[in-house]
Amino acid sequence: MLDYDKEAERYDASRGGEPRAAAAAQAVLDLLPPHARGLLDVACGTGIVTRRLAAGRPDLRVTGVDLAPAMARRAATRLPGAVVRADSRRLPFRDGEFDAVCCIWLLHLVDEPDVRAVVGECARVLRPGGVYITTVDKAASHNVGSDIDVVLSERPPGPVRDAAADVTSCAAAHGLVPAGRARFTGHGQGRSPRRTVADLRRGWFVTLPPGDPLAEDFAARLARLPDQDRPRPDPVFSLRAFRKGGFDQGGATP
User: Does the residue 194 lie in any domain?
Assistant: First the structure.
């Protein structure tokens, strides 16, 4: 896994910057219930999406949480007083404290037991009737059918921890039922061959460790592709929303 303290400085620029953040935030906002007043953004990273969530709904109190110190510090500059450094498996909030919880680009990074722990914690801090929103199938989102994908299709398969069906099953175990879905474009994240080689050599692909002979073989194959600096199509990410059973703020069952 990448070192996200080291990634913090270049994170936004290397992942589409503000256009991608705007698309992600709008997709989350579109899945929020209109009566939501408190939102927790788990694994908020640099806060580039979190800030847009707050700006998009002035009536929404948004809190960010991230474990990586450098990420949390950057997020705190964007939302002063609204960012907490903490582990998403042990959130430092009361039961039922938030109307909504989101975690974007998180579940694919953690081990299977930790997926259950994260989803369980997100469910715990949700009030009855609240909504949990998460990305699913992240790795598949990057497969856009390009020549780069053809090369990478032969790499050793890695574990898929955020498969939609598995996340739905995990959510159900914590009293969360499906409540909607959305898709958004990862603007500026279309891969070029040269950029893919650079990512490979810094540990982006977990089954191709930097310096491994197999990784260098893939780097050589990618380097032979045409149009080395031409980005291929952007990925399209998937969101799923889940509602916690119980009564909503208006006293109606969800």
Answer: no
Burial of residue 229 (number of CB atoms within 10 Å: 0-12, 13-18, 19+):
exposed
The domain of 59 spans 4-142+159-189+234-244
How far apart CA 254 and CA 249 sit, in angstroms, is 10
19-40 b/e (C-beta count within 10 Å ≥ 16 → b): ebbbbbbebbbebbbeebebbb
- In this prediction, residue 5 carries a pLDDT of 64
- Structure confidence by residue, pLDDT tens digits, 178-214: 999 999 999 999 999 999 999 999 888 889 999 899 9
How confident is the model at residue 18, as a pLDDT?
Answer: 86
By C-alpha distance, which of 180, 142, 163, 186 is closest to 25?
A: 186
The answer to whether 138 and 108 have CB atoms below 8 angstroms apart is yes
Q: What is the model's pTM?
A: 0.90
Q: Which regions in the chain score pLDDT beneath 50?
A: 249-254
**Spatial separation of the C-alpha atoms in residues 203 and 22, rounded to whole Å:** 27
- The first and second tokens of residue 156, run together, are 């050793």
Look up the CATH number of the domain holding residue 120.
3.40.50.150
How many domains is the chain partitioned into structurally?
A: 1
* Strand partners of residue 241: 133, 180
